UniProtKB/TrEMBL annotation:
Keyword terms: ATP-binding, Nucleotide-binding
Organism placement in taxonomy: Bacteria, Pseudomonadati, Pseudomonadota, Alphaproteobacteria, Hyphomicrobiales
GO MF annotation list: ATP binding; ATP hydrolysis activity
Keyword tRNA processing: no
Superkingdom: Bacteria
Organism: Methylobacterium gnaphalii
Family: Belongs to the ABC transporter superfamily.
Residue stretches making up the ABC transporter domain: 21-252, 269-515
The protein's name in its UniProt record: ABC transporter ATP-binding protein
InterPro entries noted in UniProt: AAA+_ATPase (IPR003593), ABC_carbohydrate_import_ATPase (IPR050107), ABC_transporter-like_ATP-bd (IPR003439), ABC_transporter-like_CS (IPR017871), P-loop_NTPase (IPR027417)
Pfam families noted in UniProt: ABC_tran
Amino acid sequence: MDAAPSPAIGIPRNEGPTPLFGAYGIVKRFGSFTANDGVDLEIRAGEIHALLGENGAGKSTLMKMLYGLLEPTEGVITHKGDIVQLPNPEAARRLGIGMVFQHFSLCENLTVAENIALVMPKALSGKALAARIARLGADYGLHLDPSRPVWSLSAGERQRIEIVRCLLQDPSLLILDEPTSVLTPGEAEVLFTVLERLREEGRALLYISHRLDEVRRLCARATILRAGKVVGACNPREETARSLAAMMVGTAVREVTHRKRGTPGRERLRVDRLSLPAPGLHATSLRDVTLSVAGGEILGIAGIAGNGQAELFAALSGEIRAPSPEAVRIDGQPVGSLGINARRRLGAGFVPEERNGHAAAPLMSLSENVLLSRYATVPLTRFGCLKLGSARDLARRVIDAFDVRKAGPDPAAGTLSGGNLQKFVVGREILAEPGVLVINQPSWGVDAAAAAHIRQAVIDLAARGAAILVISQDLVELFEMAGKLSVLNDGTLSPAVPSAETSREAVGLLMGGASDHGSAGGSLPPVHEMAPVPLPAHAH
């Protein structure tokens, strides 16, 4: 059936079959700020359609309107050619729209099953729901324990809840916002198989990702947004990742410049035989973790989510105290028993994995967030506090240096897109010129240009003499940034090796618990000792 033309409501006549869902003339304003400006988008059954754009281009705003979380200021949304109203997510779900969120919409104090039950029919609960979760997890490789509370889960495990919760609703349109941002290559490969199966079943998928090789692999059509407007469309399979990135940002994306690594300076961060019991029922114990990072060095730590990354970060930042002061040293000083402010006063900076709620207070302004992270480390007024005006100046410096896109001069942190908030949090720490920086998932959910900017800023900070520890599941990122690599598996850290002397295959195997000795906790073998192991296509 062809869609009927309707100039009065701005629905254009289609040449082919009626799209499953359409959005026409979509405008969304927040006060004087226009997030979407006359956007047209058509999504067909049986296709994976990419929506591309840099951070702040308006992608998430458009998706929220398709899912009923926001209402358009102007324009219409159609389902099979008919105009529909989507006042809330329940209405969207009734039409067969499901959404996997980039920022987790989960209740921390509820269990996995309870979070999923919130969007399921009342008849499906208890043992029946737990059985469905287990069966779907087994089928798709998205394993979850229905009884675990969400607060105890890693970011990767929380992402699995979002995906499973959506798939259990049997959607005809599945919207995925950065679905692989916290997945390992193996987990992502399982997801791609699921998505291809859903496409073959005749479902429509709208795919948002900054991992452009994934887009080229999965998607046959792409719509590109820039500054809230549609600026182009293409077949991603006929483009390169670099050409797609250039369309998104309007100019060529610069490559990360690797500075020549000289002789490392003095040791600035040391962890010596750190063992910690699991801080919660479902957390991971750290066992005999030892590492050293000198000034000018970047140490990368790879690992699958839930293997102790969060616990290691907390022990390094001071959120969890070590058993002895000597277990963690910053510039030679024992700090294992000190809290985060004391460590910051010694010149350390920290970027946690979860930006909303951990790295930033979402309801507070950007300048207030700077104040929270700097009040204990900068010169104070005679009344013993940091001037808010000074914090605003620092916030503006971060915004300018890291191209943070925002609405208003000093908005609440929670109003920024995920990628822009990540740029702000990373920039806030780097512009403090720390002597030691610990950063967890540095470019999670940011576009190609922003990822290059962040990685370059970290490399430049190391070149100025800082010791940097990077925790990441992105092997491309780690090999691009780090001079040495270790793998954290089940709370045990492998010895560090130069990144030039190993491979992504070797690191990936050790992330999964294998080693050159055939057991977990081994060391990374050099490249010449590795038999070739094929990587997933998107990892090349």
